[in-house]
Design goal:
280 residues, alpha/beta, two-stranded antiparallel ribbon, 10% strand, Methyltransferase, Methionine Synthase (B12-binding Domains), Chain A, domain 1, five-stranded parallel β-sheet, Rossmann fold, 12 helices
Length: 280
């Protein structure tokens, strides 16, 4: 089964390391890619197209001609969904538990080299974040370990986020309401939404309602997404929704503390699933 076509050609180029001009040539000459077209005529590519381009590069490196490499890449079955196995993240987990900065960064680098960013987010980062939260609540990890791991992961994720406001896709403003300081899940959400072609403006933790109001009116984004881990922060969300009543921006609330607020929609599931919901 073909995966859903959601990627513009610039994002396909970024994921595969192949210039857009060469991608167009491979599509035109060899039928390597099978894009869908939007009503406005834009081509959209799928994860299967990503796999074919990567496979094309591998085959070219063996000395095959471009025509033969494309023929083989197209004839092979689509790649199965990629998940980073739990074992691949053990080095990272051990390094974080030891507060070993160098080994933790090296382990994260190896994960990114061996797996896609999506696989690392879904198979490693999100489970780690859940373990940090539950481990701290149960007293199984120290405050130092929780802070060290959270800060290291946050830094690495924001490194992956460089340039996530570029492009021509719809824009989303991401923030936490007043008093809410936990924004790691929001960073993961933003990375997932970026993979779906959106531009991201990230305001982060503890953002006042007047700042949100000013930013939304200035940028006119398609979506404002607010992360809430504690339901006690919902009054701040309600104030923001009230201020923005009549503005053509959809307001979404996600996180463990999300709840019903007039003028806003509640997101379900993981940050990755929530990104799919907003994009849809």
């Amino acid at each position: 089964m073909e995966s859903a076509a959601q990627l513009r050609i610039g994002e396909l180029a970024r994921r595969t390391g192949v210039a857009t001009e060469l991608l167009r040539a491979w599509e035109r000459r060899y039928g390597l890619l099978t894009p869908d077209r939007t009503e406005s005529g834009y081509r959209l590519y799928s994860d299967d197209d990503v796999h074919r381009v990567r496979r094309m590069r591998e085959l070219l490196a063996t000395g095959l001609s471009a025509a033969e490499a494309a023929r083989q890449a197209v004839s092979e079955p689509p790649a199965p969904a990629e998940l980073a196995p739990a074992a691949a993240s053990m080095e990272l987990r051990y390094a974080l538990a030891r507060l070993d900065d160098a080994d933790a960064h090296a382990a994260f680098d190896r994960l990114l080299a061996d797996y896609s960013a999506d696989a690392v987010l879904s198979g490693v980062v999100l489970p780690l974040l859940r373990e940090l939260g539950t481990g701290w609540e149960r007293g199984e990890i120290s405050v130092a370990q929780e802070h060290f791991a959270s800060n290291l992961l946050r830094g690495r994720l924001l490194g992956l986020a460089r340039g996530w406001d570029r492009g021509a896709g719809p824009r989303a403003v991401l923030a936490c309401p007043p008093g809410e300081r936990h924004d790691l899940g929001l960073v993961v959400f933003g990375l997932a939404l970026r993979e779906l072609g959106w531009r991201i403006t990230f305001l982060g933790a503890d953002t006042p309602p007047d700042t949100l109001d000013e930013t939304v009116r200035r940028l006119q984004p398609q979506a404002l997404v607010l992360a809430v881990t504690d339901a006690a922060r919902l009054p701040g969300v309600a104030e923001t929704a009230s201020r923005l009543r009549g503005v053509d921006t959809a307001i979404w609330i996600g996180g463990a503390g999300a709840g019903e607020v007039e003028g806003a929609h509640v997101l379900d599931g993981s940050p990755l699933e929530a990104a799919q919901q907003v994009a849809a």
